[in-house]
Amino acid sequence: MLDKSIKPSSIVGYLDEFVIGQDEAKKILAVAVYSHYRKIEQSRRKTVEIAKSNVLLIGPSGTGKTLMCETLSKLIEVPFVTADATSLAQTRFVNEEIDAILQRLLDKADGDIARAQSGIVFIDEIDKLKAPQGQPRSISGESVQHALLKIMEGAPVKLQNAQYLDTTNILFICGGAFIGLEAIMSKTHGYGFISTSDADNANILERLNTRVKPTDLFEFGLIPEFTGRLPIVATFGELSRPMLVRILTEPRNSIYNQFREIFRNEGVELEIERRVFEQIAEIAWEYKTGARSLRGIFEEMITPILYVVPDRPDLKKVHITSLFTDPAFMRA
Ligand SMILES: Nc1ncnc2c1ncn2[C@@H]1O[C@H](COP(=O)(O)OP(=O)(O)OP(=O)(O)O)[C@@H](O)[C@H]1O
Ligand SMILES: [Mg+2]
Fold this sequence. Notes:
Layout: H1 8-16, H2 23-46, E1 55-58, H3 65-75, E2 80-84, H4 85-90, H5 94-108, H6 113-116, E3 120-124, H7 139-153, E4 156-158, E5 164-166, E6 171-176, H8 181-188, H9 199-210, H10 214-220, H11 224-228, E7 232-235, H12 241-249, H13 255-264, E8 269-272, H14 274-287, H15 294-308, E9 317-320, H16 328-331
Parallel strand pairs: 1-6, 1-7, 2-3, 3-6, 8-9
Antiparallel strand pairs: 4-5
Helix pairs in contact: 1-2, 8-10, 12-14
This protein binds adenosine-5'-triphosphate and magnesium ion.
């Protein structure tokens, strides 16, 4: 099922090639996926029922939640589909939509029911199913949570072609930005009464304090039964400016590498000074949308250059030294 050579550390190693930082979340997700498949194998051998541990990814917008799941799906050779909770909340036919997700999972498994039944479903924007602030919980959001509950805990679902898909061994990963959760947590958390005499204790306390509790999610607007099905929580941190610089330059498919390739196809070498990436990171950081705005800022800089490059077959190299000055060949 899961390739025998895959271990939590090798999953993290692979994620590292594409996702910058978020080390804690990488580990949690890697262990969750690894144990999930170990559990399925064990329960086949021993007929022991081992409860499944679905995963919840929480963190600010643009910090890599969706990216991490998509990267993960490329590594592991199990059927993997992504769905969006927002569209589930907007439809009148929630159950049909959910059936469609499972149908897509079956398609990904090339129609092999057994493989689909041990696949992974990633449901993004799960926080959109919450109650609007100060209002009774939205009916649609809550009914979607109930509908999802059923498949998350395991149920045979009848698909269009009258085949049944059992969701018991499907791993569900839910993701969301959960804006406002931090305020709830700072209100409800605190283990001040436990002694903090040494550094170890302080570390444990720190971990407990940053841990998202089901009651926090309930107060945020998810129904308790739903949060109860998501026992593993991984939190994503805000991206710092140095991390934004690394995102621009380090991943295998980083924006810099992509554009170097584009220029190479024009017969031109593209070289960009580190300072330029720092300037871009600075602006992106102001926008507070994580890494999401990096591409737009970069493209704004590069578009006028890409406009003239095809007209200059003599050009061998473009060297950018600042976000705010044109490269030398354009000034000439
Ligand atoms: N940690 C990261 N490492 C590398 N690239 C990142 C990272 N975080 C974000 N990015 C870049 O920013 C884009 C947006 O990130 P992503 O879609 O994963 O955000 P998200 O956490 O799912 O946000 P949202 O809550 O708004 O859905 C990605 O496509 C990727 O290019
Ligand atoms: Mg996302």
